[in-house]
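To whoever is on call:

I kicked off a structure prediction for a single chain this morning and the downstream step that reads the tokens threw a length-mismatch warning. I double-checked the sequence; it's 113 residues and nothing unusual in it as far as I can see. Pasting both halves so you can look.
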Amino acid sequence: VQLQASGGGQVQSGGSLRLSCRISTSYSIVNMGWYRQTPGNQRELVATIMFRSGEITYGDSVKGRFTISRDTAAKTVFLQMSSLEPEDTGVYYCYGFAGTSYWGQGTLVTVSS
């Protein structure tokens, strides 16, 4: 199983970025999403989406600013991040559950003020 993430980078406060993550697996995908680790903090939930139902869970700090979506045929999840703030700076980890948990290597998002 592989998770391939892309789309991180640097943006100014108020800007937008889009992350994507594709999972390569022959197992049935239960859910996928993103977690992040910001400086000085533990890894926290950003957003997850149930692959079959589309049910979504957002972390409190990103509600109303971030949108998660999926392409089930492509086994890919997207995270549209808008109104980015310096506090969103951190490493974003793609996550997938397909029989067991899988984690991507992390992609750096830097938001400058």
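Update from on-call: the warning came from a stale cache, not from the record. Cleared it. Sanity check on the structure: The mean pLDDT is 96.
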